[in-house]
Amino acid sequence: MRTILSIVFVFLLFVWSDIMFAQDVFTQQRAFWLLEAERSKPELHKEICYPVRLVNAINDRTVWQDWRMESVGDPDVCYQMSFKEKQQVLFDFGRHLTGYLTFRLTTLSRVQDAPIKLRFIGAEVPSEVSTPFDPYPGTLSRGWLQDEIITITEIDRDITLPRRFACRYVKVELLGASADFDFALSKIYVTAQTSVQVRPSSLPESTETKIKQIDLTALETLKECMQTVYEDGPKRDQRLWIGDLYLESLANIYTYKQLSLTRRCLYLLAGLSAEDGRLHANVFEHPIPHPQTGTFCMDYSLLYNLTLLDYVKATGDMQTAEDLFPVVEMQLHHALSYVSNGLFDQHLHEPRLWLFFDWCDGFVPDASIQGLLILALNRSAELVRMIGRKAEANKWTQLARKMKIAARRAYYRPDIGLVISGDGQQISYLSQSWMILSGVLSPKEARRALENVMQSPSAVRPRTPYAWHYVIEAAITCNMHDQARKLLTDYWGGMLDKGADTFWEVYDPADSSLSPYHFAPVNSYCHAWSCTPAYFIRRYPDIFQQ
User: How many helices and strands (H and E) does the chain possess?
Assistant: First the structure.
């Protein structure tokens, strides 16, 4: 009996220890990682910004989203008149700002004898102040819409809204006031904030004007998203997403060069990882740093490894590479658990994986995730070789070679010169791009595949700047420099032509109402993943600056 009990006890101890280890493989490191993240937290640079003009929103079906702004005067005019008579006013700050709105109401006649109720609407684009918010049809929280109602019981003082705004335009509406006294809106301003401290150098004078404009707008987009983390968008979602982090960090390397922010984000994601070591796709900073629990995006997790490599190559910070090696290893471990016979199979385990790649209906990611994992294996191998881990590096490069062979058999059609994906043999821009970036196709095959997909009217096209980034990277890899330049100037330049002063989350030239959330005003019109023209223009001057 004693022997049986001993066996049972040993068995239970084994099971318990195995479970505990599996529950949290990073227990000892996590506190340290969060401490390192906090040490790299930047100070915010603040600037007081006043409106530059008063405007009216004009319905015009000839312009993007059917609304444009028309100048109607100087803000000082508003400050000198009764707001009760005016009822509403629309300010234009001249550029996109991220910060806190302050205003003052001043008594004109009699004494305030009742509260004043005002509504403030912050807008990144004209349609946001013109499209009715209710009934709300969107799939994201209505709370993201920047309309705030405030009740004011004391005036003749500065009042700051507690909510941070991300906007160019601010509309102020009077909802209620006593008939027995009068007042004016006597000032309004935004205390804008960003962690950016120094502007990068200007492009050469000889650079094409359109390229200069795209570069400046991309820089402005990145600046607005560089807060105490790389935010995906300062209006929405105001948090750190790995996919955005990768592209923001790339652009930052070649522009602002404030790489301590990258370091902070890498450690923060590591410190907030799940118990099994997987990275959450995004994390919040407030009220205290925490992940959006349950959001695991495999393609984003793999991009973490690429981000760390680029950071280390730019800074020489080998200590961070050593510290975060377990995170790199664990992301590959989880991804490789979905590989069978050299192919990534998203259906291999339950629950099914979330694979993003693009906001595109019907996109089949099979070929793309295969290519990304191959690239991540090779880039991770390059990273760990730098810190002397040759065994892991050799193992990962060998696995990458096997996956390349399997990828060619499964996804490449030499008869048509294209990569296909899924049972339906879908042809898409992204499938070609990820097979090119991973080195699965030879240089000749890669160029042919990209040329062919661009000539295919039925090919699935990207719908976000995020996805177009990888298409342009693929074009540069194929030495299709003229095409890369044209893709950049046509797509991002198209946003400029439609009035963008920062670049957008989604953009389809043929669909002004495009929204992944079924309501365009909740889209982000200053979005981190759209900032990479600045990266391309400055990394490849021979392509984009001449």
Answer: 17, 15
Pair type for strands 343-344 and 339-340: antiparallel
Give the tokens for residue 359: 């906001």
Helix-strand-coil percent breakdown of the chain, rounded to 5?
A: 45, 20, 35
DSSP string, 347-396: TSSSSPPB--S-S-TT---HHHHHHHHHHHHHHHHHHHHHTT-HHHHHHH
Does this model's pTM top 0.90?
A: yes
Q: Which tens digits make up the pLDDT trace of 134-177?
A: 999 999 999 999 999 999 999 999 999 999 999 999 999 999 99
- What are the sequence ranges of the domains in the chain? 45-193, 298-355+361-461
One-letter amino acid for residue 288 of the chain: I
Task: Please give the full DSSP string across 232-252, using - where no structure is assigned.
Answer: S-TTTT-SEEHHHHHHHHHHH
Give which of 505, 501, 473, 506 is closest to 487, Cα–Cα: 473
How far is 346 from 350, CA to CA, in rounded Å? 9
Q: What is the largest CA-CA distance in the chain?
A: 95
Phi and psi at 267, nearest 5°, equal -70, -40
- CATH 3.40.50.1360 assigned to domain 298-355+361-461? The reply is no
Helix (H) or strand (E) holding 304: helix 298-315
CATH 2.60.120.260 is right for the domain spanning 45-193: yes
The answer to whether the beta carbons of residues 528 and 248 sit under 8 Å apart is yes
